[in-house]
Amino acid sequence: MTPLEHAEFIITKIMSLHERIVMWCSGGKDSLTLLHLLRQWTNRVCVLFNDVDGEWPGVRENLEQCLQQWSFPDARVIHPFITYDEYVARYGYPMEIVPSVMDGTGLESPFYVGGHKVSSWVHCTVQRFVLPLLAASVELKADAVVTGSRASDAPAFGRMGAILDSRANSGFIRYNPLIQWTADEVYAYIDTHGIPLPPHYAWKRKATYDVPDCMACTWFPQHWAVLKARYPAVYAAHWPKVAPVYAAVAQHLTDYQASLKTLPEE
Questions:
Q1: Domains of the chain (ranges, CATH numbers)
Q2: Which end of the chain is more exposed for a tag (fewer CB within 10 A), N or C?
C-alpha cells in the first residue's frame, strides 16, 4: 500500500465510523494536502484554523481561497489563548536546546540562562497552537480529529502512528492520514494537483532548516538571517530583543562545553 493509498484508506475508515469530524488546519503544505484529500467529504468535515498572531503573510488568505475552491462549508477560525509576547513574558523565548515532553507539560517555570528566560519550542507550540484546537474540538463534541501530522516531522508522531485513541481524555480519536508521507511526497502531490501554497513557500520549500509557523520564532538561530534578508521590518522589530538572549544561550553552551572537559578520563 502506497502512502497515498494508506491515507485514502484511513480517511474512508474515518467517514464510515464517525459523525462529528474535525480537521486541524494550519494552512501549511501538510494540512492543505490533507484538505485536498478530503474534498469528497466536504459536508462531513468541520475545518478548524488557529489564526495565530505573527503568522506568515498570506497563510489565512491562501487557506480561505482553497476552502472556497473546494467547497468546504464549515470552516471556523479560532485564536491562541495567549499571544506570542505574553508567552515570552511568562515562559521565555522558545529554544531548541530546552527539552519538554511532546504534550507540552513539564515546564511549569521558566528556564534561565544569563538572566534571560528561555523555553521549549514544543511547550510554546502546545500552548499556542494545540490547546486552542483541542478546546474547540471538545466544545464541538468531535468524535474524530484529523491532522496532517507526519512521522518524519517528529519522533513523537511516529510513535503515535496513524490512529490515537484519545476518547478517555478528550472524547475523540485522532487520525493522522499522512503519517507515512515524506515531505518530498507531500510536495509531489501538491505539484501534481496544482495546490496553491502561501507566498513564503517560494523560499521555504528550499530552506535547510525547519521554518517555524510564527515569523519571529526563536526556535532556530539561522532563521534570523532569512528574516534580515527577506523581511527586514520584522527583523528590525524583534532582533534587538532576541539578540541578547541568543548571546546568553551561546555563553551558557560554551561554559557547559568547557565544564565537560573537566570530566575524569577512563
A1: 3-260 (3.40.50.620)
A2: C
What is the C-alpha to C-alpha distance for residues 184 and 108, in angstroms, rounded to an integer? 37
**Identity (one letter) of the amino acid at 230?**
R
Q: Which is more confidently placed, 38 or 151?
A: 38
CB proximity list for 133: less than 8 A, separation 6 or greater: 24, 48, 50, 78
Calculate the CA dihedral of residues 209, 214, 215, 219 and round it to 10 degrees: -40
**How far is residue 52's CA from residue 180's CA, in Å, rounded to a whole number?**
27
Distance CA 253, CA 247 (A): 10
CA 202 to chain CA mean position, Å:
19
pLDDT (0 to 100) of residue 152: 80
Residue showing cell 484529523:
146
d(CA 93, CA 38) in angstroms, rounded, equals 36
- By mean pLDDT, which of 2-11, 91-100, 129-138, 150-159 is the weakest? 150-159
3-state secondary structure of 51: coil
Contacts of 8 (CB under 8 A, 6+ apart): 37, 177
Q: What is the pLDDT of residue 103?
A: 56
In Å, what is the CA distance from 148 to each residue of 32, 33, 36, 161, 227? Answer: 8, 8, 11, 12, 26
